[in-house]
């Protein structure tokens, strides 16, 4: 795996862009954008996007409300994105899987807050594999740099 080669992908009509490993491809036929290595049997990155319009509160207040009660909240110094992480184990189609989540949000002027929910799914028996750990670390670094393009703003959009 080449460690430093990343490509920017743009999803949801340009509202969100982020980096993924160069070798990854977008899987077709999915409701939400889904990326992984070609032919992978573990390690899929999915992203959803929620747009919230601040009505009676300011966008900053709405962003803070969004992260109230969430754990592991940090703010990326470079982008200003708010980020919260969590993990959980579950089962899907009889397979034990482990999910890593990154909730990444920011203000899109004048009155929107956008939240991207990134989830990375691995087979539970691969959680401690060095390649899995390396990929989780990489994803954790790049999702904080996600860009919510302020030029693509549809104030009537409440759920992208």
What average pLDDT do the residues reach?
90
Fourth CATH level, the homologous superfamily: Mog1/PsbP, alpha/beta/alpha sandwich
Strand order of the largest sheet: 3-4-5-9-8-7-6
Q: Give the C-alpha Rg.
A: 16 Å
Helix vs. strand class? mainly beta
Beta-strand residue percentage? 35-45%
Helix content: 10-25%
CA-CA gap between termini:
33 Å
N-to-C series of helices and strands: EEEEEHEEEEHE
Which fold name corresponds to the CATH topology?
Answer: Protein Transport Mog1p, Chain A
Domains counted in the coordinates: how many?
1
- Oligomeric state: single chain
Number of strands: 10
The top level CATH class name: Alpha Beta
Overall geometric form: globular
SS element count, helices: 2
Question: Low-confidence runs (pLDDT<50, min 5 residues)?
Answer: 155-160
Main sheet overview: 7 strands, antiparallel
- CATH architecture label name: 3-Layer(aba) Sandwich
Keywords:
Protein Transport Mog1p, Chain A; seven-stranded antiparallel beta sheet; mainly beta; 2 helices
Characterization of this structure:
The protein has 160 residues and is mainly beta. It has one domain (12-148): Protein Transport Mog1p, Chain A. The chain is built from 2 helices and 10 strands, in the order βββββαββββαβ. The protein has helices at residues 59-67, 130-143, and strands at residues 6-11, 16-21, 25-26, 34-36, 44-53, 74-75, 82-92, 95-108, 112-123, 147-148. The strands form 2 sheets. The protein has a 7-stranded antiparallel beta sheet. Strands 1-2-10 form a 3-stranded antiparallel beta sheet. Strand 7 and strand 8 (95-108) form a beta hairpin. The longest helix is centred in the C-terminal third of the chain and has 14 residues, at 130-143. The radius of gyration is 16 Å and the shape is globular. Mean pLDDT is 90; it is low at 155-160.
């Amino acid at each position: 795996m080449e460690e430093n080669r990343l490509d920017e992908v743009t999803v949801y009509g340009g509202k969100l862009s982020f980096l993924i490993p160069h070798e990854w491809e977008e899987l077709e036929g999915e409701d939400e954008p889904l990326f992984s290595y070609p032919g992978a049997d573990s390690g899929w990155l999915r992203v959803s996007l929620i747009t919230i319009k601040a009505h009676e509160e300011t966008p900053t207040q709405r962003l803070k409300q969004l992260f109230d009660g969430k754990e592991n909240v940090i703010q990326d110094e470079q982008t200003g994105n708010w980020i919260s992480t969590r993990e959980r184990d579950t089962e899907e189609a009889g397979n034990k899987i482990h999910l890593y989540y990154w909730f990444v949000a920011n203000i899109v002027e004048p009155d929107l807050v956008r939240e991207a929910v990134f989830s990375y799914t691995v087979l539970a028996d691969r959680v401690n594999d060095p390649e899995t750990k390396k990929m989780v670390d990489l994803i954790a670094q790049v999702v904080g740099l996600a860009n919510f393009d302020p030029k693509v703003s549809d104030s009537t959009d409440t759920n992208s």
